[in-house]
Amino acid sequence: MRAVVTRVASASVSIDGETVGKIGRGFLILLGVGPEDGEAQCRRLAEKALGLRVFSDEQGKMNLGLEQIGGEVLVVSQFTLYGNCRKGRRPSFVAAAPPELGNAMYERFLELCREMGFAPQHGRFGADMQVESVNDGPVTLWLDTDELM
User: Fold this and answer.
1) Which of 23, 43, 61, 146 might form a disulfide with 72, Cβ 3.0–4.6 angstroms?
2) Structural contact between residues 4 and 67, judged by C-beta atoms closer than 8 angstroms
3) What is the tens place of the pLDDT at every residue in 46-78?
4) 121 is catalytic
């Protein structure tokens, strides 16, 4: 699994002009699923992403996590994180999970967020979504379970 985690002052996701998820300070997580991903990868990615300490403490050092700042989480499915742009100008997405697995792992990631104490706002798997964010810092991190396991 892959995630782009962005520290945000605020973020929202809309579908057909209707806001379906909105947060204040916290993390916007763009989540991609690969064809071999399962429970172990999903759990490891959730633990890593939600445990990141990238919010400033009193000394201005990135030392605080979501829990300490009362942060929120917005999770948006993003199969294009598995896009391959090596050949030609049109990306290939054959390395992304099939929709059934992608949706199952996306839903499981949302469940894990809840279990870890963060009620996630979220988009809708497979929908055409418009995502807005006010990046804070900016701080943006790339996580890949192939590198975390």
Assistant:
1) 23
2) no
3) 999 999 999 999 999 999 999 999 999 999 999
4) no
The reply to whether 19 belongs to the active site is no
Q: Which of 78, 118, 121, 145 is catalytic?
A: 78
Catalytic residue among 19, 68, 80, 130: 80
How far does Cα 40 stand from its chain's mean position? 17
Give the type of residue at 99: P
Tokens found for residue 138: 């900016």
Q: Which of 27, 41, 55, 79 is catalytic?
A: 79
Kindly tell me the number of DSSP H helices and DSSP E strands found in the chain.
4, 8
In the residue annotation, 6 being an active-site residue is answered as: no
Quote the pTM value.
0.96
pLDDT, tens digit (0-9, with 9 covering 90-100), for 127-137: 999 999 999 99
Residue 81 DSSP SS3 = helix
Of the candidates 33, 37, 38, the one whose C-alpha atom is nearest the C-alpha of residue 2 is: 33
